[in-house]
Automatic annotation (TrEMBL):
Pfam families: zf-HC2
Domain Putative zinc-finger: 5-39
Family annotation (InterPro entries): Anti_sigma_zinc_sf, Znf_put
Protein name, entry field: Anti-sigma-W factor RsiW
Heme listed as a keyword: no
Lineage: Bacteria, Bacillati, Bacillota, Bacilli, Bacillales
Regions crossing the membrane: 82-103
Native species: Paenibacillus aceti
Family: Belongs to the zinc-associated anti-sigma factor (ZAS) superfamily. Anti-sigma-W factor family.
Length: 106
C-alpha cells in the first residue's frame, strides 16, 4: 500500500515512540524504505524532539513553582484571617456575656 507522506508524518511520532499498532508500524516501515524525506524527518525527531520537550518542561516546572508559592502565600494569608476572625468573635461573645448577661469570668 502506498500512503502519502502527510499520513506517514502523522504516524511518525507514534512510530518513533513505539506506541503505534503493528499494522501502522508495518506501513510506516514500508514507506520509509523508499521515502528519503520521511526518513530524514524520523531521524530529526531523535535530535530535536527531546530538547524541545526538555525546555518546555523546564518552563512549565518554573510556572508550577511560581503558582505553588503564590498559593501557599494565599493559604497562609487566609488562615491568618480565619484565626483573627475567630479570635474577634470569641472576644465579642465573651464581652456580650459579661456586659449584658452579667456572667462573671474568672
Amino acid at each position: 500500500m502506498n500512503l502519502s507522506c502527510e499520513i506517514i508524518r502523522d504516524l511518525l511520532p507514534l512510530y518513533h515512540d513505539g506506541v503505534c499498532s503493528n499494522d501502522s508500524k508495518a506501513l510506516v516501515e514500508e514507506h520509509l524504505m523508499y521515502c528519503a524525506n520521511c526518513r530524514t524527518e524520523l531521524i530529526a525527531m531523535d535530535h530535536t524532539f527531546p530538547m524541545n520537550m526538555m525546555e518546555q518542561n523546564l518552563k512549565e516546572a518554573e510556572a508550577v513553582k511560581k503558582l505553588s508559592k503564590e498559593w501557599k502565600a494565599e493559604q497562609l494569608k487566609s488562615s491568618l484571617k480565619g484565626a483573627l476572625f475567630t479570635l474577634l468573635t470569641v472576644i465579642v461573645f465573651v464581652l456580650v456575656l459579661y456586659l449584658f448577661i452579667g456572667i462573671e469570668i474568672g
